[in-house]
Amino acid sequence: MAETKVSRVDQGHTKIRNVPIAVTPEGFWCCPSPVMFQKALKAQNLPNNERTPKPNNDSTRQKVSIVFGDPGTSDLKLFLTGKQGFSVKMSVHRTVLIENSSFFANKLSQQEPPLSCLQIGDCEDVEIYLDTVGLMYCKEMKQRLIKQSVPRVLRVLKISELLGFQRCIESCLEYLEAVPWVGEEEEEKVVSSVLRVRSDNTGVTPVLKRITSEISYPLNDTLANIMELVLKSNEERGRREMKSLVLRLLRENNSPLGDGSSADVLNGSIYNSCKCCLGSLLILFKSASQPGFIDQSMDSRGPVAKQIALEADNLLWLLDILADRQAADEFAVMWANQNELASLHPKLPTVSRHLVSCITARFFVGIGRGEILPSKDTRQLLLETWLQPLIDDYYWLQHSCRSFDRKVVEEGIGRTILTLPLEEQQSILLEWLGKFLKAGDNCPNLQRAFEVWWRRTFVRPHVEQQGSLLQSDSMTAS
């Protein structure tokens, strides 16, 4: 608390400045407007070149005082001095201060005869101190606080705590419970300020309920429910925006649940969603691969094609989440083993199936970037099962899928191939070469991977052989 003492202010060294005041409906004063207060502060700090500077001590220091209130009915002079020397003289009423403030009650009740003057020095926030004392005269504080900003009310709350002004503390807490908090920074300031209030104050809990829950809900269940709602949505814009938002939020905090076991539970929930989507996709592929499906009317084919695109989009989103969480290796195993789905792939019209190849492309990109690290057998099986369907859909992917980045995908495919043993690299790349020479731009361009394989196959053995011969000759000569 600021320093408090009984004293007189020597009027010989104090400038008295009258400023406009606001009068409450009850007829009492309240603090001057912040604008007028700041003008007084500014006036105090203006340089005075006409006078010789005086020594900087308490007896000679120039002070600016603000006199307001009703001197005729007041029975106490309250002097506030800020840390920069700014002083305020207040004409107040002893009974009002004692009734509203435990701090003033303690200071004033102990004095006999009653004090006529009380000085409080080294105030950190004189302006808000004035405002808070003025609120002691208001019956309806809500009407005063509702016009204030959150930062200003937090300052009032702090001074009210220092003064033991319980009625104002409760009003500030009621205000903070109802008003919106704008931005994370303001929210943190509100929470930290409210947490400093005594825990026995009944107004604290309602404010904190905005960020904490008394009922303990499993976070995994909540996240799983959110993801299920997104996966089942058919509204394109809502799906797109919420997918992006959830992915970003999970990416910002990759371990939202604290410990590894909880993260494993969440990953398990995501994998359950993957299995459901894969099951639905297989059923849709079987339906769309039936003889005569392509000859059906658009009204019959349209819903199936739309649902295939939806499930493919769901799987791609789940893969993005798992890749960000470094937990997509098992999904790579699941996708590599979708032999039935891959066998049905050529039987569907390209327009209906090509989005499924985006999933394969995302796996290759993830492996090429080191985000997904499946075993050698899984990488090889992934290429054997899904590279040909990807090549078959490559034209459509380039021209009908806006999110498809050809260079990134081709780099991912090439790097995936180059992680295999040299014999497997040769087998896959020679098969690719025959297709590339026929299809050109309608086939992935894996020339960079081909160059690496070429050097590994033809150049490196020759260099190593030459190195061995040189080493042998030097040993013979020695």
TrEMBL record:
<comment type="pathway">
    <text>Protein modification; protein ubiquitination.</text>
</comment>
<dbReference type="InterPro" id="IPR038920">
    <property type="entry name" value="At3g05675-like"/>
</dbReference>
<dbReference type="Pfam" id="PF25553">
    <property type="entry name" value="BTB-POZ_ANK-like"/>
</dbReference>
<comment type="function">
    <text>May act as a substrate-specific adapter of an E3 ubiquitin-protein ligase complex (CUL3-RBX1-BTB) which mediates the ubiquitination and subsequent proteasomal degradation of target proteins.</text>
</comment>
<keyword id="KW-0833">Ubl conjugation pathway</keyword>
<dbReference type="InterPro" id="IPR058039">
    <property type="entry name" value="At3g05675-like_ankyrin"/>
</dbReference>
<dbReference type="GO" id="GO:0016567">
    <property type="term" value="P:protein ubiquitination"/>
</dbReference>
<protein>
    <recommendedName>
        <fullName>At3g05675-like ankyrin-like domain-containing protein</fullName>
    </recommendedName>
</protein>
<dbReference type="InterPro" id="IPR011333">
    <property type="entry name" value="SKP1/BTB/POZ_sf"/>
</dbReference>
<feature type="domain" description="At3g05675-like ankyrin-like">
    <location>
        <begin position="225"/>
        <end position="460"/>
    </location>
</feature>
